[in-house]
Design a protein that fits this description.
Layout: H1 7-16, E1 23-25, E2 28-30, E3 37-41, E4 48-53, H2 57-73, H3 81-97, H4 99-110, H5 114-135, E5 142-143, E6 150-158, E7 161-165, H6 171-184, E8 188-192, H7 199-211, E9 218-220, H8 225-234, E10 240-244, H9 247-259, E11 264-268, E12 274-277, H10 284-296, E13 308-312, H11 316-328, H12 348-363, E14 367-370, E15 374-375, E16 383-384, E17 387-390, E18 407-413, H13 416-424, E19 428-429, E20 431-435, H14 439-448, E21 453-456, E22 471-472, H15 481-486, E23 489-497
Parallel strand pairs: 7-8, 7-10, 8-9, 10-11, 12-13, 12-20, 13-18, 17-18, 20-21
Antiparallel strand pairs: 1-2, 3-4, 5-6, 6-23, 14-17, 15-16, 19-22
Helix pairs in contact: 2-8, 3-5, 3-7, 4-5, 5-6, 10-11
Length: 500
């Protein structure tokens, strides 16, 4: 999928777009019971796209009841894996056939370039649903090694009702990472998209029904965390809670889940990922381009953003010049223009957060190499230029806290052990990268880096076949791969006496 159309085409399509804005409960679109709505604002120009249903605990109660009825009836949970496979593959096909509409909703709602929405997010979403559909009838149970007079079976059963709370930076893709394995293993799901980017989730519900997902099996509740997210985490009839978002919110939700019914809770949270470059990197130009893309892609609003660049002192100045050149080539532009590589920050509060970190970095003594300013303010939208700081010490705020914006901190090192110490000295452990031609060094670094994903001589690798998740305060559990199916199921041992 590539955005081959012109800016004029996408602008015209946006003007004709029919935007769904209600909650989806028990197979139909409904207003919030309170009648309340909130403005869904586009970061492209600050314009209101629509008024979205503002759900609260009353809507949560209706959605949980619908999901529980559907699960207990067995209308989905008791179907054969091959049936669920066909439905999810059909859903993937429907998403693909509506790819332009969904990509446009994503760009208008969240501000990412249309080329990324279509070529990356939508393509990966289709792949996710199709992959999960295809794997379920190939996921075997186990037979325990017993004697001849008994039989031990190890099987997996769906959790039941799952609440999935997803973030605003990859709205549809993160939803697919939760919905794919949750649905294919037979659960009923209540999806709460971020209030900042709910539109693709709302539209997806309709496509799910068309694909064959029974009523009540997938419900979508737009709304705010306090009003809709927390009641889901606390609900005594929700069996599982999955979340992607900030570490602070993840901790809060885990506490709520633990004090309710001890529901299974899996959190995929923040990161402060180190990107480590040694002098023997195979190609410094390639490494510099990857360093820029690694932190400025999606406006830096990525949990795995390569926000800490660790460079050997012997190449620091030369390498950083190359990164600056690559970063400046990614200046913000109109997200509806297929030529744009960097779009808009999601909203004004996030702009304030990013620029606040930039100001603090300069106060703490970091040297600004490029960027540092809000731009394109005449559009009414929210844009911050790629920003790079040199002479950053590991104890500075920008070297420790997740900014979630286009800000890069450069830290130099002399020895391999020093690089490892700096890289691992973080509350986070989501991802890391190493650039070197030394195979021994690559293996040693990969082994000792405390991160859920380690990439050697490139950044942000992996696909649906590999698990994704973090160490330490980057969360628990894993998305993607067969391992993701495990967290949506209960493990059961059944022993049968064959000689009663």
């Amino acid at each position: 999928m590539t955005a081959t159309h012109s800016l004029e085409y996408w602008t015209a399509q946006a003007a004709r777009l029919n935007i769904r804005n209600q909650a989806f409960i028990d197979g139909r679109y409904v207003d919030a019971r309170s009648g309340q709505t909130y403005a869904c604002v586009s970061p492209i120009d600050g314009a209101t796209l629509t008024q979205v249903a503002q759900c609260d605990r009353n809507d949560v109660e209706l959605a949980v009841q619908a999901a529980r009825r559907a699960f207990d009836s067995g209308v989905w949970a008791d179907t054969k894996p091959v049936h669920r496979k066909k439905v999810l593959v059909r859903l993937a096909q429907l998403i693909e056939s509506h790819a332009e509409e969904l990509a446009l909703l994503e760009t208008l709602d969240m501000g990412k370039p249309i080329g990324d929405s279509l070529g990356v997010d939508l393509a990966a979403t289709v792949r996710c649903f199709a992959w999960n559909g295809e794997v379920i009838d190939k996921w075997y149970a186990e037979v325990a090694p017993t004697g001849p007079d008994e039989l031990g079976l190890v099987t997996r059963e769906p959790l039941g009702v799952v609440a999935a709370i997803v973030p605003w930076n990859f709205p549809l893709l993160m939803a697919s990472w939760k919905l794919g394995p949750a649905l294919v293993t037979g659960n009923s799901v209540i999806l709460k998209p971020s209030e900042k980017s709910p539109l693709t989730a709302i539209r997806l519900a309709e496509l799910a029904i068309e694909a064959g997902i029974p009523e009540g099996v997938l419900n979508v509740l737009p709304g705010f965390g306090k009003e809709a997210g927390e009641p889901l985490a606390a609900h005594m009839d929700v069996d599982g809670l999955v979340f992607t978002g900030s570490t602070a919110v993840g901790k809060h939700l885990m506490g709520i889940a633990g004090t309710s019914n001890m529901k299974r809770a899996f959190m995929e949270c923040g990161g402060k990922s180190p990107n480590i470059v040694f002098p023997d990197a195979p190609n410094l130009d390639t490494a510099a381009e990857a360093a820029a893309i690694g932190v400025f892609y999606n406006q830096g609003e990525v949990c795995t953003a390569a926000s800490r660049l660790l460079v050997h002192k012997s190449i620091r100045d030369d390498f950083l010049d190359r990164v600056v050149a690559a970063g400046q080539a990614m200046k913000p532009g109109n997200p509806l223009d297929p030529a744009t590589r960097m779009g808009a920050i999601v909203d004004q509060p996030q702009v304030n957060r990013v620029t606040g970190y930039i100001d603090q970095a300069m106060q703490e003594g970091a040297r600004l190499k490029c960027g540092g300013s809000r731009v394109m303010q005449d559009t009414g939208g929210f844009y911050v230029e790629p920003t790079i700081f040199d002479q950053v010490s590991p104890d500075m705020t920008i070297a420790n806290e997740e900014i979630f914006g286009p800000v890069l901190s450069c830290i130099d090192f002399e020895h391999e052990d020093e690089a490892l110490k700096v890289a691992n000295n973080s509350a986070y452990g989501l991802a890391a990268a190493v650039w070197t031609s030394d195979l021994t060094r690559a293996h040693k670094m990969a082994h000792k880096l405390r991160a859920g994903s380690v990439w050697i001589n490139y950044y942000d690798g992996g696909d649906m076949t590999a698990p994704f998740g973090g160490f330490k305060q980057s969360g628990n559990g894993r998305d993607k791969s067969i391992h993701a199916l495990e967290k949506y199921t209960e493990l059961k041992a059944t022993w049968i006496n064959l000689n009663p």
